[in-house]
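#lab-general

N.A. 3:47 PM
ok so I finally got the sequence cleaned up, no stray characters, all 292 residues accounted for. can someone with queue access submit it? mine expired

B.Y. 3:52 PM
send it over

N.A. 3:53 PM
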Amino acid sequence: MNEAAKAMGSTLGVIGVAGPDAGDFLRNQLTNDVRRLGSDRHFLAAWCDPKGRVLMLARVAVFEQRYLLIVPRSMITALIQRLRMYVLRAKVEVTDESDRFRLAGLCSNDLPDPDATDIRDDVITLGLPAGQTNPQRAMLLAGHASSLPPDSMAVDDSRWQLGQIDAGIPQITLETQNTFVPQMLNLHWLHAVDFDKGCYPGQEIVARLHYRGRLTRRVYRLQWNAEQPPAAGSLITTDSDDNAGTVLQAAEDGTGHGRLLAVLKTARATVASLRCGSASLQTLDLPYATPD
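B.Y. 4:20 PM
back already:
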């Protein structure tokens, strides 16, 4: 691992939720049921506002009798403050654990299956869905950078970001917070919403869309061609300047091109020419079914 990779963790951080009531607390807040988690598995889950808009999209794991929520580091301070508002009299501690772990990505053989967790020595290995070019992927959380494999990548490395994009895994940042309901982020297809779990903030709206509504926006994967990757939150338009959608994340592939994930209006996604600023866009397939 090079020196830049040893400084990893700059873009992602970890929120810790612990205490006798931590499981019940998170079960009542998140779209997925943390009671299904153990030290051998992890999952994606969203935290919504009362209108069903996603405030946080986290990968949730269990380690040493606490839940670890992996989220963009820039959002952690505000998320912790807001989560603590809902603790009330529950015996729950919500803390910033980012300095405790070094986060990295790994593409290799013999990694855990998607959603499986392997804990050995000083490293937590979270198996992730495959990308088109990397059939086996994992996120690593280590107590020390020296514990990470030499071929691991910083989580802000464009190669790792491309792997996340190619796997169709969206990321919510400050620029896209409070904008989309979970289904617009494909979270129902990524097993990040438990429709049988019961109440959580925004649950009524999420359930209504699932059972009675029609999904008119969802995540698409696209190729872009420009000098710089489109920024998260950037507007995507048609040639006639109609609003087509919003960029979630983008990364370059080293050839003047790159790929991105965006929430697009399904009626606009089939338009022959889409643009984001100076970048021209072409839609690509996702690695999972999207039964519109």
